[in-house]
Amino acid sequence: MKKLSAVLLLPAFLACLLAPAPAAWAIRLKEMSTFEGVRPNQVWGYGLVVGLNGTGDKDKTYHTNQAFANMLKRMNITIPVNPKDMKVKNIAAVMVTADLPPFVKPGTKIDVTVSSVGDATSLQGGTLMVSALYGADDNIYAVAQGPLSVGGFAITGNAGSVQKNHPTVGRVVQGGTVEREVPIRWQGKEVMSLKLSQPDFTTAARTAEAVNSRLPGAGARPLDASTVEFNVPANYRENLAVMVAELENLEVVPDAVGKVIINERTGTVVVGENVKLSTVAVAHGNLSVQIKEGVNISQPGPFSNGETAETPETTINVEEGADRLLLIERSTTIHDVVKALNAIGVTPRDLVMIFQSIEAAGALHGELVLM
Question: What's the whole-model pTM score?
Answer without folding.
Answer: 0.66
